[in-house]
Amino acid sequence: MSRPTAPAAPDSLPPWPYPRWIAHRGAGRLAPENTLAAFRLGAQHGYRMFECDVKLSADGVPFLLHDATLNRTTRTPAALGVGASAVAGDHPWGALAQRDAGSWHSRAFAGEPLPTLENIAQFCLRNGHRLNIEIKPTPGTERHTGEMVAAHAARLWQGAAVPPLLTSFQVQALEGARQGAPDLPRGLLLDALWTGWLETALSLGCVAVVCNHALWDASSVTQAKSAGFRLLSYTVNDEWAAARLIDLGIDGLITDRVDLFSPDDA
């Protein structure tokens, strides 16, 4: 098998078109995650880039939700019916669109709906915001979800100056994303530096590696930078952690604390 081609060396990389500070799931914990209300609140705090989770409905509509099931962040059980599956991907968009995705967080957001990827694309494009789409497949649909989410993103951002960054923990989802929209940038998400992580990111044609912030140290940063990758971290909620990562030269910090960190911080 041929060895994957490494990205360009760090000193020859093109300018990184994304801000350093990225609002996690829209506005972290200040609003119901992965909703337009959260994106609007994050923007009010000055954030110009957002991270969100995207999966597919049973009829192929990309929409925002982190969990595999609906239980934690949505309400209105009657929309599903007695005994219906709690797995979000088992339901058509028409049923999912009826869910209340806000009241679990607080009464102020009661009735906030689940947004589609198209809703979020329109918000970002109209306001000049950047987006990190984490592909979050229903288990068993990894490759198909990656392909479909990427294809929809390519259509929605067609002609845009800066495309969304597609990331996933699931290798098959990133393989699908490369198939569905090979020109969109991809990043491998990691919650551990498992054997072969760097080679896998290379083989997937990724431009970035996105790690749990505790995984970045002088050694892992050197490895990833030497291979030509941009480096991002999640979820950075403490000032000491942010200072350490900035000193290491991390390119992107994903945070819940939009109320603590200024997106203009260097």
How would you sum up this structure, described in words?
The protein is α/β, with parallel strands linked by helices and 266 residues long. The protein is built from 8 helices and 9 strands. It has helices spanning 36-44, 93-96, 117-127, 142-156, 171-180, 197-203, 218-226, 239-248, and strands at 21-24, 49-56, 62-64, 130-135, 165-168, 186-190, 208-212, 230-234, 252-255. Strands 1-2-4-5-6-7-8-9 form an 8-stranded parallel barrel, surrounded by 6 helices. Helix 4 packs across helix 5. Mean pLDDT is 94; it is low at 1-7.
Relative helix content = 25-40%
| Shape by Cα distribution | globular
Class in CATH?
Answer: Alpha Beta
For the record, the count of structural domains works out to 1
Average pLDDT, to the nearest integer?
A: 94
CATH-assigned fold name = TIM Barrel
Low-confidence stretches: 1-7
Element order, helices and strands? EHEEHHEHEHEHEHEHE
Radius of gyration using CA atoms only = 18 Å
CATH superfamily: Phosphatidylinositol (PI) phosphodiesterase
Please give the count of helices: 8
The portion of residues forming beta strands comes to: 15-25%
- Strands ordered across the widest β-sheet: 1-2-4-5-6-7-8-9
User: Which CATH architecture?
Assistant: Alpha-Beta Barrel
How many strand segments? 9
Distance between the amino and carboxyl termini = 42 Å
Largest sheet: 8 strands, parallel, barrel
